[in-house]
Design brief:
GO terms for molecular function: LPPG:FO 2-phospho-L-lactate transferase activity. With 325 residues, the protein is an alpha/beta fold. It has 13 helices and 14 strands. The strands form four sheets. The chain has a seven-stranded parallel β-sheet, sandwiched between helices. The protein has a three-stranded antiparallel β-sheet with strand order 5-4-6. A two-stranded antiparallel sheet has the order 9-11.
Length: 325
């Protein structure tokens, strides 16, 4: 029997947690990663090289690789703040940028690095060009650039992306649509709703493919709300935003954490994007999707509230088992 095909879409620090657990299963895995990051090291590199930002791709590469821990520490090493023009840059970002420049694209670089680091599966940037994220707020104000969105007070109405260096319409990377259409399951998130998940889906080809695919589409809802993005959001609000952006109810299953986050993890100074735990609205969810999986998906570590990759993947495997391949 062939391996079930599962495609994970997102970015940031959320999807690496899931991918790291998925790679130990007998699956054909593809990761589709956002290229709209314009802050920190990734932002500096994209502006200097006019290539897609490497940071989210770097974290996914590490999560899906069987590289020894020492190699991982080297790849993830971040230069000290006293190191001049190198300050704050992870070594892996510079390696990805260098190979991207040498090969003419980040897409080509990732195909080399997946072999170099013995990655289980395939990693594709969502687009082969750097994208700029635009957020239009309820008050009509438009904020340009992912790193600026959380600084604007108010509620986001919708987001869209444009190409950085030309006026052409953003397009999906080669093989991305094919991977989505051939998948048995699509997993969205976990990750920032407006800045990690939607920047992929609002690329028209990707959004259309996710709507058209016969795969089970599962959304891993965030555990915590995020400052400047999802303040006061319920789990149903997250799903409504996704469905509204694509113009239809395309999500089949939502995975929701029901374990209580301790009070000391609220408004954490270490993770200042976190506010409070996402409220539950199961009646609202049932209007948006056909299946809700609620369980203890919580992992508390390093002062933050994260998803437990093993618990999430166990439920995803149950869903795959329910689907006739």
């Amino acid at each position: 029997m062939r391996k079930p095909k599962i495609t994970v879409i997102g970015g940031g620090t959320g999807i690496p947690v899931i991918l790291n657990s998925l790679r130990h299963k007998d699956l054909d895995i593809t990761a589709i990663v956002t290229v709209a990051d314009d802050g920190g090291s990734s932002g500096e590199i994209r502006h200097a090289t006019q290539l897609t930002p490497p940071g989210d791709l770097r974290n996914v590469l590490v999560a899906m690789s069987d590289m020894p821990r020492f190699y991982e520490r080297i790849f993830q090493y971040r230069f000290n703040k006293e190191d001049g023009s190198l300050a704050g840059h992870p070594l892996g970002n510079l390696i990805i940028a260098g190979i991207s420049e040498m090969q003419g694209s980040t897409y080509n670089a990732m195909q080399i690095l997946t072999k170099f680091f013995h990655v289980t599966g395939k990693i594709y940037p969502s687009s082969e060009k750097a994208l700029t994220l635009h957020a239009v707020f309820k008050d009509g104000q438009e904020v340009i650039g992912e790193s600026h969105i959380s600084q604007h007070k108010g509620m986001i109405d919708h987001v869209f992306v444009t190409n950085d260096y030309d006026d052409s319409k953003p397009k999906a990377s080669r093989k991305v649509v094919k991977a989505i259409m051939e998948s048995d399951m699509i997993v969205l998130g976990p990750g920032s709703l407006f800045t990690s998940i939607l920047p992929n889906l609002v690329i028209e080809e990707i959004g259309q493919a996710v709507c058209d695919t016969k795969a089970e589409v599962a959304y891993v809802c965030n555990i915590m709300t995020q400052y400047g993005e999802t303040e006061h959001f319920t789990d149903a609000d997250h799903v409504r935003v996704l469905n509204r952006h694509l113009g239809q109810k395309f999500i089949d299953t939502v995975l929701v954490n029901v374990e209580k986050v301790p009070q000391e993890y609220m408004n954490s100074n270490k993770f200042d994007e976190y506010l409070v735990q996402v409220d539950h609205d199961f009646a609202g969810l049932q209007k948006e999707v056909s299946r809700v999986v609620s369980s203890d998906f919580l992992c508390l570590e390093n002062g933050g509230a994260f998803h437990n990759g093993e618990s999430v993947v166990a439920e995803l495997m149950n869903l795959i088992g329910m689907k006739e391949l």
